């Protein structure tokens, strides 16, 4: 909020981040709202907003509805936005529309709901048409909002995106749900806030939290933010910028831009955007301003950033900045580069790379010459590198039920996450490098190829395929792969050296007596559990002691050496266990 507005105290459920010097609690306002405060504190242009807290979300689930007093506070927050912008929510000559966006304290990209263009009614559409002189734009805003509200709040299961106008969307929603989209903007807001709260316990959000070990009672804050319109005119658009390449970690901006689009168009993957150079060619001043802001956010955040932005009539607005989801290769490269830049210490670099990431980095790659003469079934954009072989399936449920499944979709949505977690690779017909499939694929470190074109699902489903997500190709059949070694990779060697100084155990080819060899035990004595380590053991060997559970058992038993040909994942797991122990004490 602007500093000349006096904000009343005593809010129970809201935070109004109007003071750049007063950092809000991330646990209270969520990562998205916290990033808005951070960008505004740096003097960057951010649409004004207020936040419904995670405490309100907890109260919503405890009481089965919006908590007492929240609707009054929502009205107060809206009044503050109206005063700052000189606009009116739900009517007037200069209408105010808002986005209603989720935001947990721990980033969960795309897992919860966002509703754009809220506050649009028949009267607002007419006023917006008069203000902009563009009835087609106003009609499109209304159609989009009706689709968001019908699907996310009222639960419409029909396809709404391709319906031609608002009347068709309303009719489909009414037919499917028996409910009408409200013509009262405040009623819309109440329904949207409740819907975003509820989305924090959706199947996709639960699956994501379970996969990453995130507490299930985390909940979400809700950010209510003034809309800016990337679909306003030819000097408007939306995009995503990574300050470092999320696939390789290279220190260069990487992103996509969609002219006359809204953010949902890009991240959903329904539309394939253009390279960021499109913005540089059309609006070079805006592009330069964006890169300057990106450099500041990268430096201030001490990590690679994923930045969402909108351009409205030639003016840049930043909507979010968060640590970027990246591939294992990028995680390693970025960590060592930040040490070289003096931004983080070697110990912090070790913290930022997980054992699982290094294990995925050491997965087999396509053998030299293996693709020569192989039938190529599809080509697209590499979104997360790697190689995987399996049977192509068309639904997330099939991916869960099919061993080594390759999930092939027109585009992915948050509702596909459980299948993406189960699949060995993901392939899409539509979408670019910043689409939902690409972002989640990198977060999971699952080989992913996007934008392969129409007909890909029909061409692949039911066939055994090899996905080479490093080159962006899908081949018929099973192609030969070759192992990858830690040796010869400078970044991995440096991480291993740093981790060796921190980890409470050494990893080597051999160690001092007495040695406990789990692989020498009879199979019926081992089972699935880590075997008990005899007291006084100084060295352990065996595959079980390279697993996270085995590493923890060895460290807790006071073992000095774990024998393993692959050192770095074991060292990182041991260092992480040590940090966990220190954090609990």
Automatic annotation (TrEMBL):
InterPro entries associated with the record: ATP_grasp_subdomain_1 (IPR013815), PEP-util_enz_mobile_dom (IPR008279), Phosphohistidine_dom_sf (IPR036637), PPDK_AMP/ATP-bd (IPR002192), Pyruvate_phosphate_dikinase (IPR010121)
A GO molecular-function descriptor: ATP binding
Superkingdom to which the source organism belongs: Bacteria
Keywords assigned: Kinase, Pyruvate, Transferase
Gene3D superfamilies, per the entry: ATP-grasp fold, A domain, ATP-grasp fold, B domain, Phosphohistidine domain, Pyruvate Phosphate Dikinase, domain 2
Cited Pfam families: PEP-utilizers, PPDK_N
Limits of the Pyruvate phosphate dikinase AMP/ATP-binding domain: 70-275
Residue span(s) of domain PEP-utilising enzyme mobile: 403-472
Protein name: Pyruvate,orthophosphate dikinase
């Amino acid at each position: 909020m602007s500093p000349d507005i006096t904000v009343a105290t005593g809010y129970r459920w809201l935070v109004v981040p109007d003071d750049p010097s007063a950092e809000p609690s991330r646990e209270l306002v969520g990562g998205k709202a916290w990033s808005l405060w951070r960008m505004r504190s740096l003097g960057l242009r951010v649409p004004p907003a207020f936040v419904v807290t995670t405490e309100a979300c907890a109260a919503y689930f405890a009481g089965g509805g919006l908590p007492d007093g929240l609707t009054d506070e929502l009205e107060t927050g809206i009044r503050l936005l109206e005063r700052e912008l000189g606009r009116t929510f739900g009517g007037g000559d200069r209408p105010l529309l808002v986005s209603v966006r989720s935001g947990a304290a721990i980033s969960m990209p795309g897992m919860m709901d966002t509703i754009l263009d809220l506050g649009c009614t028949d009267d607002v559409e007419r006023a917006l048409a008069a203000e902009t002189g563009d009835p087609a734009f106003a009609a499109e805003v209304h159609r989009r909002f009706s689709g968001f509200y019908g699907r996310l709040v009222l639960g419409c299961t029909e396809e709404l995106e391709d319906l031609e106008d608002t009347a068709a969307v309303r009719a489909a929603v009414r037919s499917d749900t028996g409910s009408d989209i409200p013509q009262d903007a405040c009623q819309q807001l109440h329904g949207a806030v409740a819907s975003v709260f509820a989305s924090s316990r959706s199947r996709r959000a639960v699956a994501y939290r379970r996969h990453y070990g995130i507490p299930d009672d985390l909940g979400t804050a809700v950010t209510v933010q003034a809309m800016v319109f990337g679909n306003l005119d030819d000097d408007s658009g939306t995009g995503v910028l990574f300050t470092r390449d999320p696939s390789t970690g290279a220190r260069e901006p990487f992103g996509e831009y969609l002219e006359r689009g809204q953010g949902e168009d890009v991240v959903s993957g329904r539309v394939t955007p253009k390279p960021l150079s499109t913005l540089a060619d059309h609006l070079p001043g805006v592009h330069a301003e964006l890169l300057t802001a990106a450099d500041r956010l990268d430096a201030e955040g001490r990590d690679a950033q994923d930045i969402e932005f909108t351009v409205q009539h030639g003016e840049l607005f930043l909507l979010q900045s968060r640590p970027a989801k990246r591939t294992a290769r990028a995680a390693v490269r970025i960590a060592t580069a930040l040490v070289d830049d003096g931004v983080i210490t070697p110990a912090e670099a070790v913290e930022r790379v997980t054992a699982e990431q290094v294990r995925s980095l050491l997965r087999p790659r396509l053998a030299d010459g293996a693709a020569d003469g192989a039938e190529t079934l599809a080509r697209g954009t590499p979104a997360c590198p790697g190689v995987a072989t399996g049977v192509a399936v068309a639904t997330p449920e099939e991916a869960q039920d099919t061993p080594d499944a390759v999930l092939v979709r027109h585009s992915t949505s948050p509702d596909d996450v459980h299948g993406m977690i189960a699949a060995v690779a993901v392939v899409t017909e539509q979408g670019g490098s910043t689409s939902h499939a690409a972002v989640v694929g990198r977060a999971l470190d699952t080989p992913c190829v996007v934008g392969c074109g129409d007909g890909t699902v029909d061409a692949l489903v039911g066939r055994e395929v090899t996905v080479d997500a490093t080159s962006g190709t899908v081949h018929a059949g099973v192609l030969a792969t070759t192992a990858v070694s830690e040796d010869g990779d400078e970044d991995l060697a440096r991480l291993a050296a740093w981790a060796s100084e921190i980890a409470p155990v050494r990893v080597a080819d051999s160690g001092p007596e007495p040695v406990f060899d789990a692989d020498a035990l009879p199979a019926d004595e081992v089972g699935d559990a880590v075997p008990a380590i005899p007291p006084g053991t100084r060295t352990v060997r065996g595959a079980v002691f390279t697993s996270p559970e085995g590493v923890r058992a060895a460290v807790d038993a006071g073992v000095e050496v774990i024998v393993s040909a692959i050192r770095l994942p074991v060292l990182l797991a041991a260092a992480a266990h040590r940090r966990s122990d220190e954090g609990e004490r």
